[in-house]
Amino acid sequence: MRILFLNWRDLSHPQAGGAEVFTEEICKRLVKFGNEVTLFTSAYDGCETETFRSGIRIIRKGGRYGVYLKARKFAKKHLREYDIIIDEINTIPFLSYRIAKDKPLVALIHQLAREIWFYETRFPISHLGYFALEPLWLRGYRRIPTITVSNSTKTDLLKVGFQKVFAVHNGISTQPLSKMPEKASNPVLIFVGRLVRSKHPDHAISAFSQVKKALPNAELWMVGEGYMRKQLTCETDEGVTFFGRVEESKKIDLLSKAHVLLMPSVREGWGISAIEANSVGTPTVGYRVPGLVDSIVDGSTGYLVRPFDVDALSKATIEILSDRTTLQNLSENALVWSRNFHWDKAANEFLSILNNVVRDSDRLGNSSQSLTDHTDPDGKPAILRIS
Question: Which option is the CATH number for 188-338: 3.40.50.2000, 1.10.10.10, 3.30.870.10, 2.60.120.620?
Fold first, then answer.
C-alpha cells in the first residue's frame, strides 16, 4: 500500500518523544513489508525539507501549529497518490477527514491530554483545552477506526464515544538481556523523560531527597531535556547528575546500571521507558495513572503508588533498595515481562488493521468511517504471574 502519515514531529525533531519512536519503528517496518510510506511533519531549525530515512519519505513543512494546515493542503493535493491516511493526533488533530472524501482513514492516538492541559498551558487556555477544545477536536473522529498504544487510552476513547479502537502496544528498540547486567555499586535511581511539568521530574528529585536520608550513598541520574532543567539544576542537592538528552545506546547503558526507574508522570500513552528499563533488569516505580497501569505490573515488575504522592514514591523505592531479595525478584520479573514487546509484532498488528480498513472500504464503497467488526489484534499482553 501507499501510506501517508500525518504527525506533528518526526524522530529527528529536537522535542521528539515516545510517540515519534512508535511512528518511526512502525513506519520503517511497513516499508520493509513492501509498502510505500510518506511522513508529513513539521519543520525545525536546520532541518531538510525532504529526506529519506529507513526507506520512509519524510516531508517537513510548517512549524508547531502551521504544520496542520500545510499537511491538509498536501494531503488534498496528493490524495490520489495514497491508499490510506494515518491522522496521528498529539492533542491537536489534522482534521484530515474533512478532505479525505472516500479515502480510507485511520486515527492514531497515543494518549488524551486531559489533565496535562493544566500542567503545560496557562489559564484560561488550560480550562478551554480541557473542557472545550479537546472534546470538540475528538468529536469528528468518533466513527473513524482508531489505533492506540494502551488499554488505558482505549478505555478513555471509548468513554468519549469512539466506536472502534484497537490497541497496538509499543515494542522496544533493544533486545532484552538474557541475564542480569552488572549494576552500579551505589544505589542508583534514574529518571528518563522530558523535563516538563507533566512528567514531574521535580517529584523524582524530591523522592530522591527522602531516599538519600535512608540510603546516604544513593544517586539520582536525570536523563532528558526540557524547560524545567535550569530550575531543577539550581534546586537539587548533592547526588543528582543531569545527563541531558543522550544517544539511545547511552540511555540503555545508564538504565542497565541503575537499580530503579522513577516515572512520576501525570499520565502516559504507554510508558515505553518502563519497558526499556525492564529489558535491562531495572524495575520501575511510578504513579498509578493511565499508561503506567499498562506498562508496570504492580508488585511484579515494579510498584504503582498513589498519584502525585512523593512520600509513597520514595517509600516504595526505599523498600526495593533496602531488600536485596525484593530487588532481585522485581529485576528478574522485569526482564521476563520485557520480552513480550516487539516492534515486528506491533508493526504486523498495525498493518493488519490497515489492510482490514482498506478492504472494508473497497467492499462497502464507503469511507473508513464505516464501522467494521475487527477483533483487537492482541489486547494487553498476558499479566506476568509470580508465585
Answer: 3.40.50.2000
